[in-house]
């Protein structure tokens, strides 16, 4: 009798299931597709996080690419050093971060997409009252030889040409963990004389502050000041948990949505004021 009651109970449970569930009762449900974590940090105009809402023209470009590739994703804010540490330490990281230079060192722990953006030439930003100490047409060599106190962001690559020139130079270069907005404040206060940054970012930060715009001068490294190997391209840097098939889907979507080698007209970069 006990066996009969158990059988009746089992039949009742099965019949109580909706029809689709009854049909799949002996099968394992297919897992939903994983969401790719897009990791970025506040660095206008590339990436912005305002009241929890992610924006910036590179975030917008990546959204277009992943939507075209039909890859589910979510955007998270994370400091740049933590992003690098995640990719170095976790070989299963199913995450990507937009806007990184493709370097030999990063090839050791990350995969890189096709280019998603071509930079404008980099720029020096210096105190307006120190500009007279520069020699026209000497490029980075002239900047480093001018006896100016240079501060750069610690842990950042400025592209192979700049990185190699800085490594060869004997001029003192100070490193700071502060972001680029804070570096400009350090210049304006007289603590340092000069820094280097992307022209797009410097233009945006100066545009936002009339006080800084008056105190500082932007010197694009173009013409006689141009560096070899410029401009640089930016990529999606992805963890090793993003398999090669997914990277190919991303590259195909980049070609379809952004073009093979997008520049500042293909991706809506801010206009120079």
How would you characterize the overall build of this protein?
The protein is of the alpha/beta class and 273 residues long. It has 2 domains: 36-119 and 232-257, Periplasmic binding protein-like II (D-Maltodextrin-Binding Protein, domain 2), CATH 3.40.190.10; 123-225, Periplasmic binding protein-like II (D-Maltodextrin-Binding Protein, domain 2), CATH 3.40.190.10. The chain has 10 helices and 12 strands. The chain has helices at residues 2-16, 19-23, 57-69, 80-89, 139-145, 160-168, 180-188, 199-207, 210-215, 244-257; strands at residues 36-40, 48-50, 53-55, 73-77, 95-100, 111-118, 123-127, 150-153, 173-176, 194-197, 216-220, 233-238. The strands form 4 sheets. Strands 4-1-5-12-6 form a 5-stranded mixed sheet, sandwiched between helices. A 3-stranded antiparallel sheet has the order 10-7-11. Strand 2 and strand 3 form a beta hairpin. Helix 3 packs across helix 10. The longest helix is centred in the first third of the chain and has 15 residues, at 2-16. Residues 1-31 and 262-273 have low confidence and may be disordered.
The gist of it:
Helices cover 36% and strands 21% of the residues.
Helix content: 25-40%
Q: Into how many domains do the coordinates divide?
A: 2
The main sheet orders its strands as 4-1-5-12-6
If helices are DSSP runs of H or I spanning 4 or more residues, what is the number of helices? 10
The largest sheet is: 5 strands, mixed
Q: What CATH architecture of the largest domain do you see?
A: 3-Layer(aba) Sandwich
- Helix/strand order, N-terminal first: HHEEEHEHEEEHEHEHEHHEEH
Q: Which residues sit in consecutive blocks of at least 5 with pLDDT less than 50? A: 1-31, 262-273
Here the CATH topology of the largest domain equals: D-Maltodextrin-Binding Protein, domain 2
How many distinct beta strands? 12
CATH superfamily of the largest domain: Periplasmic binding protein-like II
The coarse overall form would be: elongated
User: What percentage of the residues does DSSP assign to strands (E)?
Assistant: 15-25%
Organism: Nitratidesulfovibrio liaohensis
Keywords: Signal
Protein name: Transporter substrate-binding domain-containing protein
């Amino acid at each position: 009798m006990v066996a009969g009651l158990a059988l009746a109970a089992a039949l009742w449970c099965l019949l109580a299931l909706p029809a689709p569930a009854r049909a799949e009762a002996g099968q394992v449900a297919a897992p939903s597709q994983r969401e790719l974590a897009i990791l970025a940090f506040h660095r206008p105009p590339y990436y912005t996080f305002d009241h929890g809402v992610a924006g910036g023209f590179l975030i917008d470009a990546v959204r277009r690419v992943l939507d075209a590739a039909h890859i589910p994703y979510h955007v998270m804010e994370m400091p740049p050093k933590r992003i690098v540490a995640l990719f170095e330490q976790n070989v299963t990281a199913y995450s990507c971060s937009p806007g990184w230079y493709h370097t030999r060192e990063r090839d050791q722990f990350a995969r890189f997409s096709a280019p998603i953006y071509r930079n404008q030439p980099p720029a020096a930003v210096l105190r307006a009252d120190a500009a007279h100490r520069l020699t026209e047409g000497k490029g980075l060599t002239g900047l480093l030889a001018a006896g100016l106190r240079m501060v750069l962001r610690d842990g950042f690559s400025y592209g192979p040409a700049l990185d190699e020139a800085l490594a060869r130079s004997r001029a003192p270069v100070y490193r700071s963990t502060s972001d680029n907005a804070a570096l400009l404040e350090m210049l304006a206060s007289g603590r340092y004389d000069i820094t280097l940054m992307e022209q797009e970012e410097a233009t945006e930060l100066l545009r936002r502050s009339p006080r800084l715009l008056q105190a500082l001068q932007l010197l694009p490294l173009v013409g006689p000041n141009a560096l070899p190997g410029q401009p640089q391209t930016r990529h999606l840097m992805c963890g090793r948990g993003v398999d090669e098939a997914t990277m190919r889907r991303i590259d195909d979507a980049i070609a379809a949505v952004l073009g093979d080698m997008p520049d500042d007209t293909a991706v809506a970069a801010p206009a120079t004021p």
